[in-house]
Amino acid sequence: MSRPPLQQWPTLSSLPIRPLSGGLINETFSVGDPPQAVLQRLHPVFPGRVCVDIDAVTRHLDAQGFVTPKLIPTADGALWVDTEEGPWRALTWVPGKTVDQVQGPAQAAQAGALVARWHKALAGLQHDFVFSRPLAHHTPHHMEVLERALVEHQEHRLASQVRPLADAVLQAWGAWAGDLDEPTQFAHGDLKISNLRFTAEGEGLCLLDLDTMGQLPLSMELGDAWRSWCNTATEDAPQARFDLGLFHASAQGYLSERALPAWQRALLPLGVQRICLELAARFLADALNESYFGWDASKAPSRGAHNLIRGAGQLSLAQSVQAQLPKMAEALKLSLIHISEPTRQAEI
Q1: What does the mean pLDDT of the chain come to?
Q2: 182-206 burial by CB neighbour count: b if 16+ within 10 A, else e?
């Protein structure tokens, strides 16, 4: 475990710290008892300058009265600290609760409404991101990474288990019927349910982990949310099912706060399928590459084995989504033709 450079934040340096579990990327600690702040060591994929973007966005949200974690500058006013282990930063602690799985339709509706309010709050922000990951949700790229991993790691101990799953992912992606040229908007970029904060009463409060922000198509942004929120299994289960009731509740929660035209709603279900296939490809590639995602030794004997389970789960979730595309269209008040042939001119 890394040692946070607490001396850079004198107001925090004497407080107790403890590691927080659940994140796949950054190493995270709470500071204080009860917690007063969060310290994070960023994964190498995130340079310290991502904090410039987080500062701009959270200042904008705070000015509008929107609850958000905010960066705590160091004693000399820096937004982050570079160390040999990587960049560190401190953020304010937002009281409330997070969950690893949606507890029911009411919470799903709260989640959808919260994300819609967050999107609306950022609609007027003028900001050019100093850090971006153009390939983060470039699905064709991730499919190429998977294909390359299959070729380069044919002797890997897990290759025979990864191959049939990877073939199924690649085949499903080849048949995907969505739109790769959808317009973009300000997006969080990683709306898994554990990145949402709720009040003790269960109301949607704020979004956490803002490193992945940028410009994304709405179908990818919400697709990633729904693949997390509507999964009846955990991300560590090899079999998953997409819950249509949770999808309906969260979609209606979103639309109650932010109206969308029919053409944009028509793209949303296929976005869920796309993100499930993309994440399946990423997990399966890392089952062989063993170089990116974190893993839990209590759930699998190795990084590769854990990511194999995750990849299988996301593939089964994509298959469950595909089987329910017509019903998802109905939940969004769209006809079947809208889900099979989405266009930006489509009308109800």
Answers
A1: 92
A2: beeebbbbbbbbbbbbbeeeeebbb
H/E stretch holding 217 reads: strand 214-217
For the chain, report the end-to-end CA distance as a whole number of angstroms: 54
Q: So what's the pLDDT on residue 278?
A: 97
Interatomic CA distance for residues 169 and 150, integer angstroms: 13
pTM above the 0.90 mark?
A: no
Residue 126 CB-density burial (10 A; 0-12 exposed, 13-18 middle, 19+ buried)? exposed
348 class by beta-carbon count within 10 Å (0-12 exposed, 13-18 middle, 19+ buried): exposed
Q: Is pLDDT of 208 > 80?
A: yes
Rounded to an integer, the average pLDDT of 99-112 is 95
Query: Which residues does 260 contact at the CB level (< 8 Å), separation at least 6?
Result: 218
- Please give the Cα distance from 276 to 273 (Å, whole number): 5
**Nearest by Cα to 331 from 112, 28, 131, 157:** 112
- Helix or strand or coil: residue 38? strand
